[in-house]
Amino acid sequence: xxxxxxxxxxxxxxxxxxxxxxxxxxxxxxxxxxxxxxxxxxxxxxxxxxxxxxxxxxxxxxxxxxxxxxxxxxxxxxxxxxxxxxxxxxxxxxx
Length: 95
Known about the structure:
Blueprint: H1 5-14, H2 24-42, H3 73-77, E1 83-84, E2 87-88
Antiparallel strand pairs: 1-2
């Protein structure tokens, strides 16, 4: 499904993208190739294929969830102008 130059200009206008007139021809070719690729992919039979979670059959090494940093929240919040229930309080700026 080839795309036209006017379609490229219309799409660019909708997306609020400024395209130089000298580049429209290349965008037309590139978008046509992308649409052709989608058509090829759409024509493939995938009904008997299982979805992949990852392209390679690997098992990730997991580590224990262990706290490695010291708790310094009290120290950091000691310099804050206002704290409420352990959270920083800031002035309301939007009503």
